[in-house]
């Protein structure tokens, strides 16, 4: 257990809260996962990077942790406030595929992005459609606080104390995102079970006491967090957009189920938006930035991870290609600094790294302040009072928390070929060999011509560098 007490920002109380685990033997964390109707954009992925950082900090500080992330493959409507079509049904119709094929494809794509960002997989991935009987049983237990209308079973939000306190959505302005549904008693009321319209059969529907249909989106998180973590559990995470509707509805369900004021989690944590040109990223337009978009431009996924770590998770982070390129350059410099230490490593531990590890501990214990942790990392790597072996050993601690693969990442792996590159590695190596021959013959005009031709093709020649060349980002 590290020395500095961990303090986290609790969205429910709007205050910094000392973290005291319910059970020190196992900290339980639940993260709202993706709706797998499309690829996840990079704004979505910030939420999972934040949750991964939280998990890494908890484990590094000595807390055994069980982390659960759900996969939403049913129930999430095109409006977060229970209006419109089911996102999965709509995607299946648009792509002329079964809804099960849609779910499998985009789940696999999401998990591939998780791996590329070096996000530790959770203890359990919980899938909504694998918990339908449990959702029906949960709905029956809270039916006393619900009412039936033509569209299905709806929750009466006046039946629980302090509804919306998480979002502070008690005014008309706070309810502005809630769409009208015929028969609802109150604007904030939400679907527990949505009945299939007469004469219409969905690809995903089940029999229930309220007719054939599908669960509401909010139901799954109450059910799966309770089943896999128990209530109350320690920490619930998600994007700040969930703080306004999804999580207040989840809390209302939990309170109805237990007949108490318990929200289900002791601490609710939310990361802020990643914004592009002043607007929140959205998949609704069909034009959005994926992790693959960055890779196609020649940017390593861990550069995006580093860009996110350079901002505290509760602060809004602006995405620009310039910011991403700067993070990529910083990542390369970190790897180069590590390689320089390895080249001089005599395996002799000299100097005390503890002040830097204490800075790391203080930074991440202060509500996951990763920007401060990165400053401590830079200073530690540059401190010549510490032997290379000492710095390399301390680097392992920093990497355990920051997840940048600084212990294992090869510099050559950062050289990603842009999708629009016109040369392959073999052609570049051949050109460089010809340039070497020209320089040996003192034909500097030919040498310069080869260098210029490579530069025009997006290749930067690096004389004296063991890597030899790299791609120039055209962002």
Tell me what the structure shows.
This protein has 475 residues and is an alpha/beta fold. Helix content is 40%, strand content 16%. The chain is built from 14 helices and 18 strands. The protein has helices at residues 42-60, 87-95, 99-116, 132-141, 217-229, 246-258, 291-296, 301-309, 321-344, 354-365, 370-382, 388-402, 425-440, 444-456, and strands spanning 7-10, 15-18, 27-31, 65-71, 77-79, 83-86, 124-127, 146-149, 152-155, 190-195, 213-215, 233-239, 265-271, 274-276, 279-280, 317-319, 459-461, 469-471. It has a 5-stranded parallel sheet, with helices on both faces. Strands 8-9-10-11 form a 4-stranded antiparallel sheet. Strand 1 and strand 2 form a beta hairpin. The longest helix is centred in the C-terminal third of the chain and has 24 residues, at 321-344. The radius of gyration is 26 Å and the shape is globular. Mean pLDDT is 94; it is low at 170-178.
């Amino acid at each position: 257990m590290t020395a500095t007490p961990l303090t986290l920002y609790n969205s429910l109380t709007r205050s910094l809260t000392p973290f005291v685990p319910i059970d020190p033997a196992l900290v339980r964390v639940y993260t709202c996962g993706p709706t797998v109707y499309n690829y996840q954009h990079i704004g979505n992925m910030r939420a999972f990077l934040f949750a991964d950082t939280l998990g890494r900090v908890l484990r590094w500080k000595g807390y055994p942790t069980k982390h659960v992330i759900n996969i939403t493959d049913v129930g999430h409507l095109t409006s977060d406030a229970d209006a419109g079509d089911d996102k999965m049904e709509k995607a299946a119709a648009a792509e002329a595929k079964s809804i099960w094929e849609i779910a499998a494809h985009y789940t696999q794509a999401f998990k591939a992005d998780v791996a590329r960002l070096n996000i530790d997989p959770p203890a359990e991935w919980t899938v909504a459609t694998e918990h339908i009987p449990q959702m029906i049983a949960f709905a029956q237990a809270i039916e006393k606080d619900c009412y039936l209308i033509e569209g299905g079973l709806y929750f009466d939000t006046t039946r629980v104390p302090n509804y919306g306190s998480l979002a502070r959505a008690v005014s008309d302005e706070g309810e502005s995102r809630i769409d009208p549904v015929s028969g609802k008693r109150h604007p904030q009321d939400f679907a527990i079970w949505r009945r299939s319209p007469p004469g219409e059969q969905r690809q995903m529907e089940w029999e229930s006491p309220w007719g054939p249909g599908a669960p509401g989106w909010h139901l799954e998180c109450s059910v799966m967090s309770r089943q896999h973590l128990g209530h109350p559990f320690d920490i619930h995470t998600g994007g700040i957009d969930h703080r306004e509707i999804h999580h207040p509805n989840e809390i209302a369900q939990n309170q109805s189920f237990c007949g108490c004021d318990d929200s289900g989690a002791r601490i609710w944590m939310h990361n802020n938006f990643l914004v592009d040109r002043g607007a929140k990223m959205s998949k609704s337009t069909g034009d959005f930035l994926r992790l693959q978009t960055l890779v196609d431009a020649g940017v390593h996924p861990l550069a995006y991870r580093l860009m996110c770590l350079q901002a505290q998770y509760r602060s809004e982070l602006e995405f620009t290609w310039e910011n991403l390129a700067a993070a990529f350059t910083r990542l390369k410099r970190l790897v180069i600094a590590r390689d320089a230490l390895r080249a001089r490593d005599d395996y002799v531990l000299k100097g005390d790294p503890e002040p830097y590890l204490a800075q790391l501990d203080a930074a991440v214990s202060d509500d996951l302040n990763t920007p401060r942790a990165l400053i401590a990392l830079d200073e530690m790597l540059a401190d010549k009072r510490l032997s290379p072996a000492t710095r390399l050993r301390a680097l392992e601690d920093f990497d355990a928390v920051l997840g940048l693969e600084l212990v294992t990442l090869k510099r050559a792996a950062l050289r990603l070929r842009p999708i629009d590159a016109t040369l392959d590695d073999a052609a570049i190596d051949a050109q460089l060999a010809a340039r070497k021959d020209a320089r040996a013959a003192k034909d500097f005009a030919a040498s310069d011509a080869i260098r210029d031709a490579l530069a025009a093709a997006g290749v930067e020649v690096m004389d004296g560098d063991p890597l030899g060349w790299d791609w120039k980002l055209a962002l």
